[in-house]
Amino acid sequence: MHFSETRPAVMAWLLAATLSLTPCIGFAQQAAATIAPPAAEIARLPNGKPDLSGNWAIAANLNDLSADMVRIGSAPVADGQKKIPYTPVYAALRAETSKRMYEEPELHCYMPGVPSHMWRQAYSGAGLVIQHNEKHIVFVHEFQGARRIVSLADNSTLPDSVKLFMGHGTGRWEGDTLVITTTNHNAITWLDLAGNRHSDQLVVTERFTPIDGNTYRYQATFADPAAYTQPWSIESTMKRGSDPNAEILEFACIEGNTDNQHYTEDVGGKSEIDK
Question: pLDDT (tens digit, 9 = 90+) per residue, 11-56?
């Protein structure tokens, strides 16, 4: 059987085997029954800005992020027109996903990148925990032990030659909206399980806007001149978890541990299970 014919099985395996060896569901789904109710009062830092500290769930589409697209450039996108505006090179890479699953980052236990880590699966009731003060905001995710520390006081940049799995983020306030700009990505991470990609020129601009004390509007814009012909944006809802004691658990990952059929020696793996 040709590998491309096995894509549905491979994608099902990616959702189950690489993310958990025991039954689990995505945190956004898992948290749906345990999210905190709307709260009129928005928690605030000593400087008066909103405090995002706590555990959160974002209802973004892990299977194909383009489903959450709301704009290409400045133009709204209708439901039937949600297609990432790839350059020809990256359109070809996206089309070859079923033949290039050996590049799938989760197979290699890599950190998932920004903003993908914001809605990755979790074993426990705390897929995403945020710690926040006036100078920094820290995102800690259970999946692959991903974390990022974003300065709210120091907007210095890194050299273009520095490429990171979680990028380099700096934050600023626009009224009550927290705006985080992340640069210095590597080109290894994917945006979702469908194989939507980016280059190392990607700039992600995230906006966190409070709706009430337990609900935020989450927006992310992707600008990448090598991969996209225009910037494009997604939007989703961010909900605070109701369990104040939710915590991050240890996450263990073993590279290529179960995909001996497809992660073979010619692409860097092993063709046989060690005995």
Answer: 343 333 333 323 233 333 343 336 677 777 999 999 999 999 998 9
Q: Is 90 helix (H, G, I), strand (E, B) or coil?
A: helix
Q: Are 249 and 236 in contact (CB under 8 A)?
A: no
Could you tell me which residues come within 8 angstroms of residue 188 by beta carbon, excluding any fewer than 6 positions away? 105, 110, 113, 165
- Cβ-contact 85, 100 below 8 angstroms: no
The string over 210-243, giving b where at least 16 C-beta atoms fall within 10 Å of a residue's C-beta and e elsewhere, is beebbbbebbbbbbbeebbbebbbbebebbbbbe
Quick one: which of 143, 129, 141, 146 has its CA closest to 52?
129
Q: What is the pLDDT of residues 175-205, one digit of tens each?
A: 999 999 999 999 999 999 899 999 999 999 9
Q: What is the phi/psi pair of residue 129, to 5°?
A: -120, 135
